[in-house]
Amino acid sequence: MKKLKKIKMAALAMVTTVSLFTFQPPVDAEAARSTHTVRSGDTLWKISNWYGVGLTTLKQANQQSSNMIYVGQKLVIPQSTISESDKDLIARLVSAEANGEPYAGKVAVATVILNRLDHPDFPHTIREVIYQIDHGHYAFTPVQNGTIHQAADADSKKAVYEALAFRGQGNGSLYFYNPKTASSSWIYSRPVTVTIGNHRFAR
Question: Residue 203: is it exposed, middle or buried by C-beta count within 10 angstroms (0-12/13-18/19+)?
């Protein structure tokens, strides 16, 4: 009986010890964040693209004043403020809007979405930006015709990550249109920032 009691006590002590190690929060919350060890050939721009975080944000998180990094350096990768489902939604819009356009045009379309997200005159979530209805009209044709629901191609997904890395560093494009098909006279009043393929971008 005493032997059985000792076995039970030992088992209880073991469970308690395991529980303490399993559920104890990390001592250093900063250390628990994602990190990247720099390898030969890495650049801050490449790393920003891989993780889908802004280059400026990445530099700030690591107190980098320049783009210089060295092999073996451990970089903190800040958590992206854009969810995976929102990245997919942007990619689907890019795929539908910029089908057949150059890769740079796909990045520029994704950048417009992010610029709107950061601008006070537009909604404050990715979903609200993409599904916005203004004066009775959808902001983006693929939402109206349903092509937003089609899966994004690989280039469009890649373009979203590049746009995220580039976030906040462009010329502030908030609109894009095809001058061959655009019927709104108002859009022609906006200052043009760049023309890529069949799309003209403006702010």
Answer: middle
